[in-house]
């Protein structure tokens, strides 16, 4: 499967293409990289930018 954002200009299911299950094959799909960049910056689904900073934080673990 090739997953896409569930946003405008992409399939509502979030699946761009599917291969046949349990079959060896190559799946080739065209994806507009510029459209992905635009949706990342201005799309309606912006999970990382909309998360609550008071609940989640990023910390480096190890080598202390």
Topology:
Elements: E1 2-3, E2 15-17, H1 33-42, H2 47-50
Antiparallel strand pairs: 1-2
Which residues form runs of ≥5 with pLDDT under 50? Answer: none
Number of helices: 2
- Average pLDDT rating: 82
β-sheet strand percentage: 5-15%
Helix content: 10-25%
Number of strands: 2
Structural class: alpha+beta
Task: Work out the oligomeric state of the chains in this entry.
Answer: single chain
Series of H and E elements: EEHH
Task: Give a quick account of the main beta sheet: strands, pairing sense, barrel closure.
Answer: 2 strands, antiparallel
How many domains make up the coordinates? 1
Strand arrangement, largest sheet? 1-2
Measured distance between first and last alpha carbons: 40 Å
Apparent shape: extended
What integer value in Å does the Rg equal?
17 Å
